[in-house]
Specification:
single chain, about 325 residues, 19 strands, Phytanoyl-CoA dioxygenase, metal ion binding, Phytyl_CoA_dOase-like
């Protein structure tokens, strides 16, 4: 549990997060931890058996925002480690054109429970170790960060490694994470760790600062009535609780469209408010961009995680952070 000696965020950082909707924390992970997580990523990639894989591609919505992956392999991945392939790793006939390590878009969605190196990032032990003996050196512990942001009962979900592959790493259009991990009212916050440098050339994130305060969660990705997923109008709360939110706060002119690139070095942590509009461009460079991310939602009374969300909790429920 976070303590007074482990504040997670300074008051200025908390204020910046609430103002901008995102916060970059350089050197949140030291090089030794970054290397350990990259080693685990490459180990996982080496275990992928394409002969038994359904060749599920991860689709990020397309220009309309409606074209998302939704097969059973994807929908039942909430308590497993599964591999989703890059759409541009296939040719017109459906054959892979890249080796498997260069064809994976994403590994998810239960790394924080099933992979010991990734699970260790959530440790709350005083020495940073977990039951399996991993000792990550963390400078902004997730539990302490969540407490600084006001979470009463933070639950961890949707952990994944995202590989923005050289030459083919797909673009991700502007979106809000609460569209995919909706609570009523919205409460999601993304923890995004760069395991390699993220640059303009290899498709770093870009943010629309302050958009979390005026951009409502208008649509939701839910499980289809018969199969797959679909986008539907959001009938619940469209903003988090509290003052300082509302569509009337939307700025006029270019300020409502001026995305800011978030180039970061390996080891950086980026916190992303669930209502914040953000995106990334296609990676056309020869350098990949591997990151690890998970989300935290509020599990306290008064926050409902919708049973229609594409991601449903495992039998034991979403992982408590503290």
């Amino acid at each position: 549990m976070a303590t007074s000696s482990d504040p997670g965020l300074t008051p200025d950082q908390v204020a910046a997060f609430h103002r901008d909707g995102y916060l970059i924390i350089p050197s949140a992970l030291p090089p030794s931890t970054v290397s350990a997580l990259l080693d685990e990523t490459h180990r996982l990639l080496s275990t992928l058996d394409l002969s038994t894989h359904p060749l599920t591609r991860f689709l990020t919505g397309g220009e309309s925002g409606d074209n998302h992956v939704g097969d059973d392999y994807f929908l039942t991945s909430g308590d497993k480690i599964r591999f989703f392939l890059e759409d541009d790793a296939f040719d017109a006939s459906g054959a892979l054109t890249k080796p498997k390590e260069r064809a994976v878009n994403k590994i998810g969605h239960y790394l924080h429970a099933l992979s010991a190196p990734f699970a260790s990032l959530l440790s709350t032990a005083s020495d940073g170790s977990d039951a399996r003996g991993y000792v990550p050196d963390l400078r902004a512990r997730p539990a302490a960060v969540a407490r600084a942001l006001g979470f009463a009962d933070p639950r961890v979900l949707q952990s994944m490694v995202i590989c923005k592959q050289p030459e083919i790493g797909g673009a991700v259009p502007p979106h809000q994470d609460s569209t995919f991990l909706y609570t009523d009212p919205p409460s999601a916050v993304g923890f995004w760790y760069a395991l390699e440098d993220a640059t303009l050339e290899n498709g770093c994130l870009s943010f629309l600062p302050g958009s979390h305060r005026w951009a409502p969660v208008e649509r939701r990705l839910v499980r289809g009535k018969e199969e797959g997923t679909e986008m539907v109008p959001n009938g619940g709360a469209r903003f988090p609780r509290g003052e300082g939110y509302g569509e009337g706060l939307r700025p006029e002119g270019e300020a409502a469209q001026a995305y800011v690139p978030g180039e970061v070095k390996a080891g950086s942590l980026v916190l992303i408010h669930g209502n914040l509009l953000h995106k990334s461009e296609k990676n056309l460079s020869q350098k990949g961009r591997i990151i690890y991310t998970f989300h935290v939602i509020e599990g306290a009374d008064g926050f409902e995680y919708d049973e229609r969300n594409w991601l449903q909790p495992p039998a034991e429920g979403f992982t408590k952070l503290y």
